[in-house]
Amino acid sequence: PQRFFIWASRDPNGGWLQRAQIIKGWVEGGESKEAVFDVVCSDGIKPDPNSHRCANNGATVNLADCSTTRDKGAVSLKATWTDPNFKSNQQTFYYARVLENPSCRWSTWDAIRLGIKPNPDLPMTHQERAWSSPIWYQPWYFPWALTFTNSQIISMRWCRYDQSECQSLSPKKVIYFHTFKKLRQRKITGM
Fold first, then answer.
1. DSSP 8-state code for residue 72
2. Are 96 and 6 in contact (CB under 8 A)?
3. Eight-class DSSP state of 164
4. I need a labelling partner for 174 at 20 to 30 A (CA). Which of 78, 139, 162, 186 fits?
C-alpha cells in the first residue's frame, strides 16, 4: 500500500494549523472520484477511524473585530499515513493539504474597516489552506513482454501488471516478463 509522510509548519504571519489532509483521486467506472482523509489533527484530536475526519477543534472568530482563538491549533503537524483503500491496479493521484483555523474573509475585514455590515450573501469566515503538488500512482507495468520463436524475439510490447494487454499474443508462445527482480518464464494459457 501507498504510505506518505506529511509535515507542515505554521507561517509565522498566518493562523494556527487545524488539520493536515491527504486528498485521493481516481477514476472508477468512467466516473472521477475523490476522497479526503484527515491525517493529523491539532489539539490532540484523532481522526475518526470510520469517517477519517477530525472533529472541530473549537477555534472561533470574533466577527466584531476578526480576532481569532489563540489557544487552539498547532504550530506544526506531522504524521505518516497509509491509504486504507489502496488498490494496486488503480491509477491514483494524491496530494497533501493543510488547513488553518477559521479566520475572517477579506469581505468581512473590509466591512469592519468601512463600518458597515458584511454582505449577507458571502461567507464571513474561511479557512486558509496550502497544498502540495500531486503524487501520481500508476499500476505496475512490466517493462516488456517478449515473444520468442526458435530463440528469436518476434515481438516486444508493454504489459499491464495483470497481463490484460498481453492476452492478444498468439497461443503456445512463451512470454518472458521482466520484473526487475528476476526474469521468469511463463506460458500464457486460455487464448
1. S
2. yes
3. G
4. 139
Q: State the Cα–Cα distance between residues 11 and 69, nearest whole angstrom.
A: 16
The CB density around residue 69, as the number of other CB atoms within 10 Å, is: 16
Distance of CA 62 to the CA centre of its chain: 33
- pLDDT at site 138: 81
DSSP 8-state class, residue 96: E
97-135: burial string, b at 16+ Cβ within 10 Å, e else: bbbbbbbbbeebeebbeeeeebeeeeebebeeeeeeeee
How do residues 45-89 score in pLDDT, each as one tens digit? 999 999 999 999 999 999 999 999 989 999 999 999 999 999 888
pLDDT digits (tens, 9 = 90+) for 83-140: 999 988 888 999 999 999 999 999 999 999 999 999 999 999 999 999 999 999 887 6
In sequence order, what are the beta bridge partners of 95? 23
- The model's pTM: 0.71
Q: Which three cell numbers stand for residue 52?
A: 477519517
Pairing of strands 67-68, 76-82: unpaired
Q: How far apart are CA 100 and CA 55, in angstroms?
A: 14
